[in-house]
Amino acid sequence: MSVDIATVKRVARLARIAVSEEEANRMTGELNGILGFVEQLSEVDVAGVEPMTSVTPMAMKKREDAVTDGDKADDIVANAPASDRNFFLVPKVVE
């Protein structure tokens, strides 16, 4: 895929960035270089390569899935103007 000056100007307009003719010419070359590099990356065979989160091996930090702070429903609705069985009551806004 290649980018022309019209595409650069259109993207700049959509991004609300003022781009002069000289800048558009320079950006066309830069964007085509970037897209060429991305096309090279698509040619790399990554079959069998595990996804990584870091370049160094590390285990994911996991916490125990346990409830540590519960049974506070009464405290949560204590300051509510209106509540019923630990649910907030709000005025009806849709008929």
From TrEMBL:
UniProt-listed Enzyme Commission number(s): 6.3.5.-
Record Pfam families: GatC
Keywords: ATP-binding, Ligase, Nucleotide-binding, Protein biosynthesis
InterPro entries registered for this protein in UniProt: Asp/Glu-ADT_sf_sub_c, GatC
Record carries keyword Secreted: no
Reaction(s) the record says it catalyses: L-glutamyl-tRNA(Gln) + L-glutamine + ATP + H2O = L-glutaminyl-tRNA(Gln) + L-glutamate + ADP + phosphate + H(+); L-aspartyl-tRNA(Asn) + L-glutamine + ATP + H2O = L-asparaginyl-tRNA(Asn) + L-glutamate + ADP + phosphate + 2 H(+)
HAMAP family: GatC
Assembly and interaction partners: Heterotrimer of A, B and C subunits.
Family recorded in the similarity comment: Belongs to the GatC family.
Main function: Allows the formation of correctly charged Asn-tRNA(Asn) or Gln-tRNA(Gln) through the transamidation of misacylated Asp-tRNA(Asn) or Glu-tRNA(Gln) in organisms which lack either or both of asparaginyl-tRNA or glutaminyl-tRNA synthetases. The reaction takes place in the presence of glutamine and ATP through an activated phospho-Asp-tRNA(Asn) or phospho-Glu-tRNA(Gln).
Name recorded for this polypeptide: Aspartyl/glutamyl-tRNA(Asn/Gln) amidotransferase subunit C
Organism of origin: Shinella pollutisoli
